[in-house]
Amino acid sequence: QSQLVEFGGGSVQPGESLRLSCTDTSVTFHYNTISWFRQAPGKEREGVSSIGPNGDNTYYADSVKGRFTTSRDDNKKTVYLQMNDLKPEDTAVYYCAVSRARLPDTWWRVESEYDFWGQGTQVTVSA
C-alpha cells in the first residue's frame, strides 16, 4: 500500500513560483498515471494536471496551461508540479493521486480512478 507525502506548499505573492513534490514512501512504485488535484475553500476538488508512464501524455486544466508543468522521476518515486506565475485563484489545498491505470485525457479528472491520495499541501497566493 502506498503512502504519498507532499512537500512544497506555502504562501507566496502573485507572480511568484512554487514547486510541489509528492513522494511515495512505499517500497514499490508501479503507477501509470499520477495527477495533481486541488480544492479551494468552498469549491469542489478539481483536476490540475496529469502525467502518464515515462513522462508522456501530460494533461492540464485550462486554468493552469502555460503556467504549471508536471514531471516525474520514477527512480525517486516522486512527481513534481512546477507552478509559475501564481495567481490568487490558485489558492487551494493541492493533492497528488496515483493510478495503476493509464488514464487518457477524458478520464484523468475522474477521482474514482485513483488508487491512493496524498494528504494535501496548502498553497496560498495573496498580495
Write the layout of secondary structure elements.
Layout: E1 4-7, E2 10-12, E3 18-24, E4 33-39, E5 46-51, E6 59-60, E7 68-73, E8 78-83, E9 92-99, E10 116-117, E11 121-125
Parallel strand pairs: 2-11
Antiparallel strand pairs: 1-3, 3-8, 4-5, 4-9, 5-6, 7-8, 9-10, 9-11
Distance between the termini: 40 Å
The total strand number stands at 11
Biggest sheet statistics: 7 strands, mixed
- Helix percent band: under 10%
The H/E string reads: EEEEEEEEEEE
Helix tally equals 0
- Mean model confidence by pLDDT: 94
**Poorly predicted runs:** none
- The secondary-structure class comes to mainly beta
Please state the overall shape, judged from the principal axes of the Cα atoms: globular
DSSP strand content? 35-45%
CA gyration radius, whole angstroms: 13 Å
Overview of this structure, please?
- With 127 residues, the protein is mainly β.
- Helices cover 0% and strands 44% of the residues.
- It is built from no helices and 11 strands.
- The protein has strands at 4-7, 10-12, 18-24, 33-39, 46-51, 59-60, 68-73, 78-83, 92-99, 116-117, 121-125.
- The strands form 2 sheets. Strands 2, 4, 5, 6, 9, 10 and 11 form a 7-stranded mixed sheet that branches. Strands 1-3-8-7 form a 4-stranded antiparallel sheet, with no helix packed on it.
- A hairpin with a 7-residue loop joins strand 5 (46-51) and strand 6 (59-60).
Features:
about 130 residues; mainly beta; 7-stranded mixed beta sheet; 4-stranded antiparallel beta sheet; globular
